[in-house]
Design goal:
The structure is a homotrimer. In chain A, strand 5, helix 5 and strand 6 form a beta-alpha-beta unit. The longest helix of chain A is centred in the middle third of the chain and has 30 residues. Chain A has an 8-stranded mixed β-sheet with strand order 3-2-1-4-5-6-7-8, with helices on both faces. Chain A has 2 domains: about 190 residues, NAD(P)-binding Rossmann-like Domain (Rossmann fold, 3-Layer(aba) Sandwich); about 270 residues, Four Helix Bundle (Hemerythrin (Met), subunit A), CATH 1.20.120. The radius of gyration of chain A is 32 Å and the shape is elongated. Helices cover about 55% and strands about 10% of the residues of chain A. Chain A is built from 19 helices and 8 strands. Chain A has about 475 residues and is α/β, with parallel strands linked by helices. At the A-B interface, helix 11, helix 12, helix 13, helix 14 and helix 15 of A face helix 2, helix 6, helix 7, helix 12 and helix 13 of B.
């Protein structure tokens, strides 16, 4: 054990004294191995490839040698393993050459959690004498070749040996990446799963809004297209392009926004009921709370579409025809519609409420951008996402209520006993607002605040805890 | 002094060789202490709590021990002090146990600058033999418990001992935070104030725009609602929803944008007058210059609202009724309004200027996002914020001027001798543009440029400085 | 060589033990040197200036000394060289004093690549015994003086000596900057060029769109203004404000978006033709591929303008006059335009397609924000930029096609044999979509996928490579 360590130290010293021609060894001449090797070569490293059939590997730039694994390993104390996990076992034969060296595992799997342990930990088991560093698996070969690092320059790195990790991070930096230290080799599993994910937090919000969308669509089709066709033989199919989406989208936006705040209310009720915040929430509630940001952004997308669909109303052929024919009818019948101040109030109010609600919604969206939310502290974040968020929900609910206006009371809006879609859309947000209103009343708010500061109803420490009033209680 | 140091070194070596079961001690079983302890326990640390009444502290996961302070301190060389500052003094009794150990101060205060020295520095005074690190106070207990680190993952860390700081940053990283090294323990005060702030830079812009808003509102109410009611008994109260906001918001946006560029002009005049850039500006000017970004973003918000309020004009009940009745009147009187090219030019120009101005305004807003402004260099930043900014101001001022059009000359727009609100709104931006125009004339621009490169009118070094022409003068 | 090293070590130890009064020396009392020195002094450093004429340098805060170069150098082991490169040569005389010390090169040049080697490397040649660190050249003197670090707090640092680099980065951090380690001194050239650049990646997209813009403008002027004037003596010049821009901008947006996807198609055809991905693309194609993001953002800007210009249509004087006179004509001629379902379908569809296309376009824009694209992995980035991007192109092309509608077939739209501008605008996006459609057919897609995984048609390794199916082939 002593000898390789000594040899390695002297080698490392040579390396340090010879900054310009550091040698890196790459095992495997596949696409990613070649891309990485060539990139390092371009950036001033001396690169040696190790291959099963060195004589078969063509197409390398001048100055890059392809040797057998054993020969290549002897050239460098840092070896990048650009080989599939399934073929790792040949490395056990090279145990002696790899002793004390830095092995960089850059492998990816085809599925999330494909193996019980991460590839890097498996490598560490196979070659116990080596220092394993997981790195570069999140970078694409194409990005390295083209230099287009538009997506992520972030190269997650983890490993148990600090100096080895530092060496690998230095290489990453010198080829234009931003290495991110993720801690010990235990993080390798997460790093290996990372590039296989496709928007994991977005799945629930997107599926939920798709399901709601289908329900709303069928409902609107029944009321707006099929009913007029059956009852009056009117062909309203062209409503499919704008009119019906513009009934679905606002309803979706409002309900999804309400669903952002519902889990917080359920959690508060649970905490009040249980009298403690230390027992875990059910899994579905946990997951729901974690994807509230995504839910809110999907709601914002629908709100944006609703705004656009509303603003184009006056340039639609159908609307212009309707407005013209109303004017022509007034003249033909020789009576002018009088100006109605109440209607003007209602019309202007619902539009103004909608604009203010949308404005705050956009503000919430902007503050959820990673670079913006990183610059605010928790107090500011809570102020924006909770206070401004509820204000947005109130404004948008009021917008819908005023839009309905007097029509709520008239039975003529029922078609086949179905109320207009905006009536349905109001159930959820109104419920959330009523529950929230109840929860902010002092009789519920005070015990809840105490519970959230760590107080527990049925606990021997409860009395003591009540003495403290901040978060760092003795 | 020698002994503890030696003991500590050997202990630290043990720690390093035993990566999997590092022990961390937490003093205090309050909410934040428990959240942090449990989180570290989940992430593979062995955690020991220290408490005044160990037997009273319930509800810990299996594997976490609660001991007396002394016993707990002996188990680890890193102790997290999850205790209010007011109770720190008991730590002096443990001085021997804490000798040479890392103490992590995570405390917060209730008010900004509550004490003359930071809690961490106070701790350092109390336990002079320990290595104090300030950390984690910006993280919320809820975020740790739920794993929802949507807001800031940034954990500011400072301390005088580099290795101690590194240890704490490693812990932060392993529990999912992004530690940010803030330097020596002197930074603790700022770190402790940070979570207590609520948008400090936004206060002046928001108060200013609120005051302007109230003034504009009263002014508009007088002209648009009270005047018609008194003179013509017309009920225009429904103007409150859209018409009046849409007169207030563009005026506010234009004036706030002008106020973004006014301090730069005042500074230039001051520098020209004083003949040097090295004497300090008055405090109010300094503060004004530092919140120009926030002023500009508030102006952008009002501009956005103005755009929305303008685009909904054709779907307002009042506007549709007005347009209809105009058409009906033309027919009744059997005379058709002829098409007027000049009016078409004016109408289209002011709309086009407004759109272009808003477009540049949005562009300025996007480039002020932290992640975008971080990718541009100073030359590019100045180009966008100065050149494009002035172009935006010019376009928006021209938009308002052309909107006024011929009406400026007609006395009929005065009501109670009050001109329209857009006339008032033009005073500030026109003043700023005229002053800027004067300042870019060579007779003022040349001495100003020299002053900004370090030249001083009344200085013995002035002649020498004139020889250089860059920023790194000899 | 031994002695200075020893001396330096003992000095460094003194420095470490004396955290509160670290001394930094600044050579040169120009603007930037003074700004940096004063800032460090404010942040608790003891600062000494070195100057050619110490007695001439006035205006320093109390506590800052100005000495001769030799005296100043003896006070500190870290010297900031705030001097123009042209005057570096006097440093050779101080070689003995500078031996083993850290020299921080903060100089900038006036032009990109002004000298063959970077200023920092030139300094390293002049004073071979010193440790050179390049830093702070990207920070502006004004930012340091005012504390307004709105633009970039990033201070790029590079150097061959790790400890020296660390010292400089610590100073940077303590004066409020975010030091970014850029690796060895070789990076100095890039760091020196950085502050001189003005949006280098935006040049091609902006010039291209300017050229297209001029062509479209002349074309539209001919058809919409000059033709009606000559043929019908109609004065349509007011079209210049809105009507003509609203024909140019959508065409530009659509064509620039198509040009984002064209280089990828050309590259695929080249790779299929060559049978390998390892030979380099022509330079123009490489450059084109690297500025696709900027091309797309310019296209988004034009799409945004198109949306705004479209939404204001109903509030334009000309449009309102046209709509009124159409209604008046209907009444005068006593015949009412019947409602046409097909026209309603076409009108609503092209508007709906446009809104959806614009929505996806905005989504693409948001995901290209640095802070957003940094949080997605490569799979997600490719999904958004490729799948959603092509969907955007399809929607926008369909929007234009449906906008044309039946008019494509009518010869009356030709004026002087010139078709409407939207017909021209469709050529490029349709070509791109047809080519893409051909390329995704299995007969082309399969060999292309293999080529992109590293397979080569004319290579001895091709058979072997076919065995692997991931990126890390053995």
């Amino acid at each position: 054990m002593e000898k390789p360590s000594l040899k390695e130290t002297s080698f490392a010293m040579n390396m340090n004294s010879d900054h310009t021609r550091k040698t890196v060894c790459v095992f495997g001449t596949g696409d990613f191995g070649r891309s990485l090797g060539n990139k390092m070569f371009q950036c001033g490293y001396s690169v040696v490839f190790g291959s099963r059939n060195p004589e078969l590997s063509g197409l390398h730039p001048k100055g890059i040698e392809v040797l057998s694994y054993t020969e290549a390993a002897q050239r460098s104390d840092l070896i990048i393993i650009a080989i599939h996990r399934e073929h790792y076992n040949f490395l056990t034969e090279l145990a002696e050459e790899l002793q004390g060296k830095i092995l960089v595992d850059i492998s990816n799997n085809l599925k999330i959690n494909q193996y019980s342990e991460s590839n890097a930990e498996y490598l560490a088991e196979l070659v116990p004498g080596a220092k394993i560093v997981k790195a570069f698996n999140t970078i694409s070969a194409w990005a390295l070749q083209s230099g287009a690092l538009d997506a992520s320059r972030q190269a997650f790195v983890c490993g148990d040996d600090k100096e080895a990790k530092q060496r690998v991070m230095d290489i990453g930096r010198s080829i234009g990446l931003t290495p991110m230290d993720q801690g010990s080799l235990k993080a390798a599993k997460e790093i290996e799963n990372y590039p296989l994910q496709l928007f994991p937090m977005w799945k629930f919000p997107l599926y939920l809004s798709a399901a709601l969308c289908v329900f709303y669509f069928v409902y609107c089709m029944l009321r707006e297209v099929i009913y007029p066709y059956i009852q009056e033989e009117k062909d309203n199919t062209f409503f499919l392009a704008i009119s019906i989406p513009n009934r679905i989208f606002p309803g979706l936006a409002l309900n999804l926004l309400a669903l952002v705040y519902l889990p917080g209310i359920i959690a508060a009720i649970l905490q009040l009921y249980r009298g403690t915040k230390y027992s875990r929430f059910p899994n579905w509630l946990d997951h729901w709370m974690l994807c509230r940001k995504q839910l809110g952004l999907v709601a914002l997308a629908f709100a944006f579409l609703h705004v656009m669909y509303t603003l184009v109303i006056p340039i639609r052929h159908y609307v212009r025809w309707k407005w013209s024919s109303r004017i022509i009818n007034q003249i033909k019948n020789n009576k002018t519609d009088p100006f109605n101040t109440t209607t003007a109030w209602l019309s202007d109010s619902y539009v103004a409420l909608g604009i203010l609600g949308f404005f705050l919604f956009v503000l919430l969206g902007i503050t959820s951008l990673p670079s913006v939310s990183n610059t605010v502290n928790w107090r500011e974040f809570r102020f924006v996402q909770s206070k401004l968020g509820y204000l947005t929900l109130i404004l948008c609910t009021a917008h819908t209520l005023v839009f309905g206006g007097k029509r709520f009371l008239s039975p003529s809006i029922l078609r086949w006993y179905l109320p207009s879609i905006y009536v349905l859309s109001l159930i959820m947000p109104c419920t959330v607002l009523v529950l929230k209103f109840i929860l902010v009343m002092p009789c519920f708010d005070q015990p809840l605040t105490r519970i959230r500061q760590g107080w527990e109803r049925n606990s021997k420490v409860s009395k003591k805890a009540q003495l403290g009033n901040g978060k760092n209680e003795v």
